Amino acid sequence: MEKEIKNYVELIIRKGINIQKGQILVVNSPVETYDFTRQVVNEAYKQGAGEVVVHWNDEVCGKYRYLYGDDEIFDIFPDWQKESLEYYRKKGAAFLSIYANDPDILKDVDADRVARQQKAKSIALKEYYENVMGNSNQWSVVSVPTQAWANRVFPELKDEYAMSELWKLILNIVRADKENPILEWEKHLNNLKERTAFLNDKKFKKLIYKNSKGTNLEIELPENHRWISGGEESKSGVYFVANIPTEEIFTMPHRDKVNGIVVSSKPLIYGGNTINQFRLKFVNGKVVEYSAEVGEEILGKLLNTDESSSYLGEVALVEYNSPISNSRKIFYNTLYDENASSHLALGGAYPVCIEGSENLSEEELKERGMNISLVHEDFMIGTEDMEIIGVDSQGNEITIMKDGNFAFTI
């Protein structure tokens, strides 16, 4: 698979990040993916990067910290880590995250410690996250196999075979096994762009979701909302692809105008723990009831991170008949599972989903219906029988999705 992996590395740097000559690239990487990360660094320099900075992380050492560290450290996020990210952001750096966690790494850890640490980090990095979510810089998230992750996706296989199968699956999904992956991505992004234009043209007032799992939900959209997909532009005008893979078209819901019940369709991995088979009831935008067969305590802590974490910040459409979904695998990895399924996100919204957001203050964005929170956690709701109806300002109804797939032609 050497050629396909090389294609993937090139795709990440040229299409995902779109590194500019002389630009700094900051890479956040698990220690397990050191070989792949070295290839990424090499390719970034070959494509003109002025400097590549790698921030390594080790989730096993992180687990030991949660198990044995002094209790007070979980309410602190070190200033030097915040200052490092802010330094590079202000220098115009691009940011690449290699997301390949063990889905069960923290299952035996005190959930309260994890929640406190997540909150401390979110508070410390509030300015950083708000700027990056507003596309101040190019950023991209990708995944590559680690042994623990591969074993979870392919539990029936021995270690080396599980790794091999996950590599093959990922390289196929990101189109790195095609003769010209860059060209294939151009076609894919153009297709998403055409569907996005259709949705933006309709200027829907609300969306109605229904399926046989129990989802019956109405989501109103803010005035002047924007649907976004595939590639985006940074504030300096550089085109980049934030997620590889990406199948979604997304916008923001109105913070206070979500009502009804939604039922999850895939597990949510949050803070090294699994939340599964969960149900949320919304009234005037807020989750007022919740339950989960697995991870209910963790779900409760997520919903109570701050006063806005129990409201929605994203609504995303993904066809059930998509490459990741068609693999018939649960990846236990949000990047992959969210691109296999229509999904929502608890917490903060992306300001770029409001037209002219760059000229609006935080208070003005909130008045338009944007949710602002310390967290942003996607969870999957799409099913093979999902129906989504769009309602415009005149009350006209258009079927957006039927049987889990787009019902309109472009």
3D structure, described in words:
The protein has helices at 2-17, 34-46, 59-68, 79-90, 111-124, 126-133, 147-153, 159-173, 181-202, 296-303, 323-326, 334-338, 362-368, and strands at residues 24-30, 51-57, 94-98, 139-142, 206-210, 216-220, 228-229, 231-233, 239-241, 249-251, 258-263, 268-270, 273-283, 286-294, 312-317, 343-347, 376-380, 387-391, 397-402, 405-406. Helix content is 34%, strand content 25%. The mean pLDDT is 95. Helix 1 packs across helix 2 (34-46). It is built from 13 helices and 20 strands. By secondary structure, it is α+β, with helices and mostly antiparallel strands. The protein is globular.
Jot down its keywords.
410 residues; alpha+beta; nine-stranded antiparallel β-sheet; five-stranded antiparallel β-sheet; 20 strands; 34% helix; 25% strand; globular
Structure at a glance:
This protein is an alpha+beta fold. The chain has 13 helices and 20 strands.
